[in-house]
From TrEMBL:
It catalyses: beta-D-fructose 6-phosphate + ATP = beta-D-fructose 1,6-bisphosphate + ADP + H(+). The lineage of its organism: Bacteria, Pseudomonadati, Bacteroidota, Bacteroidia, Bacteroidales. Allosterically activated by ADP and other diphosphonucleosides, and allosterically inhibited by phosphoenolpyruvate. Substrate binds at T129, I130, D131, R166, M173, G174, H175, E226, R250, H256, I257, Q258, R259. Belongs to the phosphofructokinase type A (PFKA) family. ATP-dependent PFK group I subfamily. Prokaryotic clade 'B1' sub-subfamily. This is ATP-dependent 6-phosphofructokinase. Residues 7-282 form the Phosphofructokinase domain. Catalyzes the phosphorylation of D-fructose 6-phosphate to fructose 1,6-bisphosphate by ATP, the first committing step of glycolysis. The active site is at D131. One of its GO terms (biological process) is canonical glycolysis. ADP binds at R24, A25, V26, T27, R28, R158, G189, S190, E191, K215, K217, N218, S219. The gene is pfkA. Homotetramer. Its cofactor is Mg(2+).
Length: 326
């Protein structure tokens, strides 16, 4: 796009495997197309506090296979204030940055939308979060790797669950979304997934125990999406102790292990395609859109739609867990 010479890139919010592959793709595609690139450290914090470094092609060598983010990431309270964003804008202008590529989750893209509007800054977003909780894209960068990490962990827990004939509640991340829980339940042959999207509709634990939980089986794994409102897996296990004492229940909270590790091929490819598409979008005059993929094709998603995460939950997938665990 005319007038854009220098592109700033940052990662923000929770780290996700594949962010480095995305940084690499954005940097190399930008340089390939004649832009200069600036790396902004620690997400919006680095814009507010002026931590900006020159990026060359070699700056992103040998990182495609690494989890985390070489740009570091942070959650910046300062950027949520008008004064913080003004400081960010001033630093950006002083560094000669004309457009931004923001790699992050719903919070980061909400911030990007506000910043873009306030200061008329062209921004392209990339969905970087293990939670898959962004609208307009089939998958986010990091989601596949996290699913695989959960799958490996649950496969191990299955040994103990079946040997000791226990009921395991395995808590996975997801913020307020149940994608990780639901799809890891399918991948591990778990007996149920308890997800926030269904919380107001049914008592998922009672349903599981009374109807779904196999009478013929004496061990089970239930994947529970984290849920600060209800207390997640810990609260469910407490309920079992009181209401269904015949079951020997245990809780495993997988925690931040789900965010780390080398990205899968799926995430590396997704990040590479999306990173290149971000530069194509800038060249095409697009602004304030997130790059998504729908049915394998790159799409541009306005920030407002992306952060709504209105993809909904796939009822068919919930049914599948039930059908396959009889
Ligand atoms: N409403 C907002 N206004 C301005 N900045 C925001 C807003 N929401 C989030 N941000 C910025 O984005 C950062 C990352 O958001 P967060 O929700 O923590 O992570 P994620 O992007 O992974 O969802 C926040 O620390 C903040 O700096
Ligand atoms: O690492 P923290 O700050 O405890 O945050 C935990 C949250 O971050 C996540 O791992 C990732 O969420 P984001 O990608 O939106 O930051 C959530 O699943 C979880 O709720
Ligand atoms: Mg988020």
């Amino acid at each position: 796009m005319a007038g854009i010479k220098s592109i700033g890139i940052l990662t923000s919010g929770g780290d996700a495997p594949g962010m480095n592959a995305a940084i690499r793709a954005v940097t190399r595609s930008a340089i390939f197309n004649g832009f200069s690139v600036k790396g902004i450290m620690r997400g919006y914090k680095g814009l507010v506090f002026n931590e900006i470094v020159e990026f060359k092609s070699q700056s992103v060598s040998n990182i495609i296979q690494l989890g985390g983010t070489i740009l570091k990431t942070a959650r910046s309270q300062e950027f949520t204030t008008p004064e913080g964003r003004k400081a960010a804008y001033d630093n950006m202008v002083a560094a000669g940055i004309d457009a931004l590529v923001v790699i992050g989750g719903d919070g980061s893209l909400t911030g990007a939308g506000i910043f873009a509007e306030e200061f008329n800054v062209p921004i392209v977003g990339l969905p970087g979060t293990i939670d898959n909780d962004l609208g307009g894209t089939d998958s986010t960068i990091g989601y596949d790797t996290a699913l695989n990490t959960i799958m490996e962990a649950v496969d191990k827990l299955r040994d103990t669950a079946s040997s000791h004939e226990r009921l395991f509640f395995v808590e996975v991340m997801g913020h307020t979304a149940g994608y990780l829980a639901l799809n890891s339940a399918i991948a591990t042959g778990s007996e149920a997934a308890i997800i926030p999207e269904m919380e107001t509709e049914v008592d998922q634990l009672a349903e599981l125990i009374n109807h779904g939980f196999r009478k013929s089986k004496n061990s089970a794994i239930v994947i529970v999406a984290e849920n600060p409102k209800t207390g997640g897996a810990t609260a469910l296990a407490e309920r079992v102790k009181k209401e269904f004492p015949q079951y020997d229940a245990r809780v495993t909270i997988l925690g931040h292990i789900q965010r780390g590790g080398s990205p899968t091929a799926v995430d590396r490819i997704l990040a590479s395609r999306m990173g290149e598409a971000a530069i194509e979008a800038i060249l095409d005059g697009q602004r304030n859109v997130m790059i998504g993929t729908m049915n394998g094709k790159i799409v541009y998603v306005p920030f407002a739609k992306a952060v709504k995460h209105d993809k909904g939950i796939d009822r068919g997938a919930l049914d599948l867990v039930k059908i396959l665990s009889i």
